[in-house]
Amino acid sequence: MKKFLFFLAFILVTSVTYAQTIINPKVGVNASRLSTDPKVGEVSGRIGYQIGLDARIGDRVFFQPGLFWFRQSTQLRTASQIDDTPTEELEDNLNRQGLQLLTQVGFNIVDGDGFKLRVNAGPAFSVITTVDENDFDLNKSDFKGANLTGNAGLGLDIFFLTLDYNYEFGFSDIFDNNTFSDTNFSDSPKLSRSTFNVGVKFEF
């Protein structure tokens, strides 16, 4: 077993060594929202931001791991119900910060020296590290500490400059404490997010 793992690691390192590698620091903005509105109230997207980097390992087909710190925000207005009458209306922003690890596979549709048009897709793993104080008294423990999402995107390389758009869709309820979710939502709210990044690339 050890010999097999060593051989597998050797093949991986050798492949990465001889493949083209691009390191791509990026910064950008995001807009996130929940998949469903509350039973009484509404939810809307807010602008957040992220900073990090990813790598492209390969040629026309490439592996694209990445790590980003993010701040995302959702505006939520909701109210409890007593005898079908909405009461105690609250409105505030749910601001969260965290880290996201992306593992994507991509393909260069156009593969020129000074211009590339590419697509990418794959899963992402996010960890929420902090939640800002809010009128709903929600904190980090009320959100799932880790979330698995799917990502699909489109990117451009214009010489050393890169532009990227990604759409992220959640697979599960973002709330860990079901009391808030069950009380205020008919369905389990899932997070969706659009990100826009600009960066510079370094080729090796």
Topology readout:
Elements lengths: L1 H17 L2 E14 L6 E18 L2 E22 L2 E27 L3 E17 L14 E13 L2 E10 L7 H7 L6 E10 L1 E2 L1
Antiparallel strand pairs: 1-2, 1-8, 1-9, 2-3, 3-4, 4-5, 5-6, 6-7, 7-8
Describe the structure.
With 204 residues, the protein is mostly beta strands. It has a single domain (20-203), classed as Porin (Beta Barrel). Helix content is 12%, strand content 65%. The protein has two helices and nine strands. An eight-stranded antiparallel β-barrel has the order 1-2-3-4-5-6-7-8. The longest helix has 17 residues, at 2-18. The protein is elongated. It starts with a helix and ends with a strand. The mean pLDDT is 86.
In short:
The chain has 204 residues and is mainly beta. It has helices spanning 2-18, 178-184; strands at 21-34, 41-58, 61-82, 85-111, 115-131, 146-158, 161-170, 191-200, 202-203.
